[in-house]
Amino acid sequence: MAYGDVSVVSMMPELTNSIDDDSGSSPWTSLPTDIVEHALALLPFPYIFQVRSICKKWNSLIFCSQFQEASLRCPVPWGQFYSPRIGWKGGASPLVTWQSYNLSEGKWVSMPQFEFPTFARKFSWNLIAANGGLFCFGASDARRLLVCNPMTKRWKELLPVSLDSKAPIISHMIVDEQRNSYDILFLVSKASWDTRGLSVVFAAEMLPADLILKSGAYCSGEFYCLTRHFLTGRYTIVILDLTMLRWRDNNIRIPEGFENYPYIVACSGQVHLVSGSSEATDTMPMASIGIFRLDPNLSSWEKVSEYSNFQFLRSTGAIYGCGAHGSKIYVVTYAYDMWIAVYNISTGIWEEPIKGNFYDMKDIFETKFSFQPNLRVAP
């Protein structure tokens, strides 16, 4: 059963009656609220959205602060998810469907559908950032922004951002629950929003014009950018101090021999590079996948692991996306099929690759974002 699926309810009339029952006579609605909140908070994440179909009272529980606090204390972890595919159901429909890879259970899952608010349906949107349980969608000019919590289906349109750049590129999102705010990092600036949707833009030094941003990672107050030189094609890491809003003087070259489809991620409080080896064959675009740990003070790399599973590499194409959660780095490859391989830094072990099972490749675009469900954070 997919998340939010009501097929079981439709097969059991007594449950269907409970959903439409406003009289309070249903046995489901007669249960004490505190008992229901505690019991539901103990459920694994997928079942939360199944039980919402039982009755109206249960359906509204996830919006209650008491339930959200109970879920925070729940001993059953909800796990982390990677969402590489998201699309519109029925082409121009505002209904958004998406699938994620559950890093805790090692399987693909369908997530609860949600739809754009009415005022936003006349625009074209792309998912451009995600963090802390929130999604950030941007219009084509990246100035009109929407932030939503896909679990609670709450939306907020942010104040437009005024930047000198004609097409500001959003590269990262940082959610701070304690301050009830979030930062959105643009290529040349940082904008902060609080829960009222007010924004402040802090101008930073421009990224050199001859460098193209490929991916980025936030770690310990600094933003690490993997860039490619426009003319030479060389990959380098440049570091932005988010306190001083200045670029560090030292540019760090990525390891020689591993320059195919590189990505940079933050994992376990350190910055890592994931890249395919430059060696290729007629049947494989890369002979192995390397993971390297960066020492920013020494501007040097330490090889953490090299993955050379022939069967896996032969069945994949380029590295399509990369991310991290906790102590795990996940590498997504794509040719005719999508595969995901997970490396556990704490154990030094690669997990068995999993093949993605997608319903339809039409009207679907890539996201390459990590996502962890969070009912407490508001857009």
TrEMBL record:
It comes from the Eukaryota. Residues 25-62 form the F-box domain. InterPro entries: F-box-like_dom_sf (IPR036047), F-box_dom (IPR001810), Kelch-typ_b-propeller (IPR015915), SCF_F-box_component (IPR050796). This is F-box domain-containing protein. It comes from Physcomitrium patens (Spreading-leaved earth moss).
